Structures are given as C-alpha cells and as structure tokens.
C-alpha cells in the first residue's frame, strides 16, 4: 500500500513537467513559424512590391516597424524593447506557477509573440534595443506579422479563461492534498497488517510453546 501511495505521488508530481514541456513545445513551434515567415518576407518582398492575398482585406508588404504591434509607439523603440524583455521573463515565471494547461497554452502563445518581436529588435538593432520589427501582413489599416497574431490569440484566450473562471493556481494544492490523504490512508492499513501479522506470529509461538510442554 505504501508503494501504491508513492506511485500516486510520483505520477501526480510529474504533471508540472508535462505543462513545462507543453509550454516549451508550443513556444518553440510558434516562434519558429514567426521567424521563418519573417525570413521569407525579407527575401520575397524585398523589392517593395505588394502581393494581394484577399483583396482588399489582406496583402503582403514588407515594412520595418520601429514601434509595437500594429505600428503603435514608433517613437519609443527602446522602451518597447525593454517592456518586451520584462514581459518575456514574466510570462516564463507565470508559466512555471500556473496549474492549468489552458493557461499554459495561452502563456506560451503570448511568450512566442513577445519574444518573436524582441528577436527582431535585437537582431536588427544599430543601437540600444532600437531594432525594427519585420512586418509583412498588410490589413489595409495596419501592417503586422505572425508574432502579432500569437499575441492577439493569447489575449483573446486569456479573456475567455477569465470569463470562464478558469483557475490560474490551486489545482496543485488539491493534488498535494490528495497525495497526502492517499499516503495517510495507506499507512494505517499497513500498520494494521503488521500488527495482525505480529499477533498471528505470537499466537503461533505460544501454541508451539504449549505443545512442547
């Protein structure tokens, strides 16, 4: 019974590792898609041409954006870069703290979006975090990239999770309580079994002693 309790504890404590693995996989895949599409845009759209995709709603145009997502804050490049660094670190910390797989997925997309644009600001900088982000998805009223899409999806997901009341933390505490209860339940049974076995052995010893007399 103790072994069963230990196995239960091991299985349930392995779940945080699963969430970390999911966060890492989603973030890496999303980052990869963002960076590959940006490299493609710099090669295929470097001549300044515009490629219609869904006229007049979407076309492809290469733009180097010094501001934030969707062209906001173009005069505050280094400030936005510092905020992106802080946001990326905060998202990793939150991902390590959450007990919800749904929150893990939303945080992974948010991290991919923030870090994807931060890579551009560092890779194409000629000063202190003043690099320009590679945008190429022209919506007519603004130009963005895949990282912006990840940020938008993450934002929508977080709003939905909040509206649904999905807990950010708490599940881990329940698991720990369940594990403790499992161990506590198994220990008395084991003790009773040991006591029963001891009593049976004493009885057999007494019987054997009486027979020898």
UniProtKB/TrEMBL annotation:
Entry keyword Heme: no
GO biological process, one term: proteolysis
Localization in the cell: Cell membrane
Pathway the protein acts in: Protein modification; lipoprotein biosynthesis (signal peptide cleavage)
Compositional bias of kind Polar residues: 190-201
Record's catalysed reaction(s): Release of signal peptides from bacterial membrane prolipoproteins. Hydrolyzes -Xaa-Yaa-Zaa-|-(S,diacylglyceryl)Cys-, in which Xaa is hydrophobic (preferably Leu), and Yaa (Ala or Ser) and Zaa (Gly or Ala) have small, neutral side chains
Enzyme Commission number(s): 3.4.23.36
UniProt-listed InterPro entries: Peptidase_A8
Any GO molecular function: aspartic-type endopeptidase activity
Keywords: Aspartyl protease, Cell membrane, Hydrolase, Lipoprotein, Membrane, Protease, Transmembrane, Transmembrane helix
GO cellular component: plasma membrane
Region (Disordered) residue spans: 190-213
Location (main, coarse): membrane
Protein family according to the UniProt entry: Belongs to the peptidase A8 family.
Record's function text: This protein specifically catalyzes the removal of signal peptides from prolipoproteins.
Protein name: Lipoprotein signal peptidase
Protein's organism: Bifidobacterium hapali
